[in-house]
C-alpha cells in the first residue's frame, strides 16, 4: 500500500485560517503591484515585511549573559531565558519578487545618493545641501 500524503497549508494574515482542499479560496493583494494573488501551496511566494529585535520582556534574569552558542538549541526555550525576540509587522502582503525589486531599487537609490554626496565632498563642491564649509 502506498503512503498517503496529506498537505495542509497554514496561512497567516488578516483572515487567518487553515486551508483544506478547495473549501475556500484566499486572495491577497500585493501592496506593491496591486495584483490579487490566490494563496496556494505551490503558488507565487508572498511575504510580509517585519522588524525583528531582541527583547527581554519575558525574561526572568535580564542581566545574565546569553547562553553558550556551542550548546544553544534555538528550538528549546530555557525557563531561565535572559532574552528572546520580538517580531512586529504591519501585515501588508507582497509578492516576493515585487519585494526584491523594491529592495533593489531602494539600494540603487541609496547608492546613487551616497555617490553624489561623495563626489561633492571629493571635489569640494558646495551645493548648499551638504552643510560643509570649505572656506
From TrEMBL:
GO terms for cellular component: cytoplasm; ubiquitin ligase complex. It catalyses: S-ubiquitinyl-[E2 ubiquitin-conjugating enzyme]-L-cysteine + [acceptor protein]-L-lysine = [E2 ubiquitin-conjugating enzyme]-L-cysteine + N(6)-ubiquitinyl-[acceptor protein]-L-lysine. The keyword Zinc applies. InterPro entries: UBR1-like (IPR039164). Pathway: Protein modification; protein ubiquitination. Belongs to the E3 ubiquitin-protein ligase UBR1-like family. This is E3 ubiquitin-protein ligase.
